[in-house]
Amino acid sequence: MEVQELKKLIKENNIPNFLIFTGEEYEVQRQYIQQIAKVKKLSVYYADNIDEIWSSLNSTSLFDTNGLYVLYDDRQLLTNEKIYSQLANIQRDNMLILTLSSVDKRLKMLKTYKDSIVEFNALKSDILKRYIQKEIDLNDRNCEILMEICDYNYGHCLLEIDKILHYVDGCVREYGKPCDVDIDGVFKSLLEDGTLYVPPRDTLWDFIKAFLQDKPKLAYELYQDLKELKVPTFSILSNLYNNTRQVLQVQICTSNDIAKTTGLNQWQIRNAKECVNRFTPGDLTYLMRLIQKVEVSIKQGNIDESIAIDYVFTNFYSY
Prior knowledge:
By secondary structure, this protein is α/β, with parallel strands linked by helices. It has helices at 3-11, 26-40, 50-57, 75-79, 81-84, 108-112, 125-135, 140-149, 154-175, 183-192, 203-212, 216-228, 233-252, 258-262, 266-273, 281-300, 308-317, and strands spanning 18-22, 43-47, 67-72, 95-100, 117-119.
């Protein structure tokens, strides 16, 4: 289910009793949960696992209070067919939303409820800018800087906006009355003094960029840094795969509107453009398949995790 479809169902008050939320925009998910609760006139209850709320979901007592129940990454619900097969029978006006940090589409439960999955992907930059400027009166350029340092994540943007607004509130309290505040000036000042968090040099991104720019010697040196930092192998493989896919999407895109055609945000497009045309589309496709093969082989015990990245280097650059 697309987010726009869910939005339409909320407006019509025709929301299914069970939904699965996934994707990186946790703050947008939270806002949708609150909006659903408002429309359905339900209180929101958070629980650790399905056992805590199963009796409430299935109660037919007139004296029970209906609720919108939210579970986070409940592995029991995902794997217990006896339980998840009964989700369609949630009683009365109760609702259940299962939020997942990642989706394994091989799971039978997710195949069964594929039409209930709503994926909250990163907001496109123009939409994210509108959201930010509803919260704070920043000019376009400072909005773009804020989005960039927050990796185009709305929830992260809100945390940094909260710092700015708290600073402004402090100025108002100090002078004892409302005063004209240059929000853009405050933003610049807090950015310069380190109050607003700017991520440090990202060794993982440097490694990925070197790899996809066909600089194997530099990439391998940066990989040694990643090992010293104890960055998980699966994190390296996952990020390399995702960035390879994004480079491929941008490289073969013939549309003038890359964002609309590919679904990538401006940050992802800008990063991908730094690496296009270093390899052929066939090379990039091979690399993606190689990474998938290595991930599966690690899980099956056929490749030791300690040599997995070396295996990718050897097989890709000798391809």
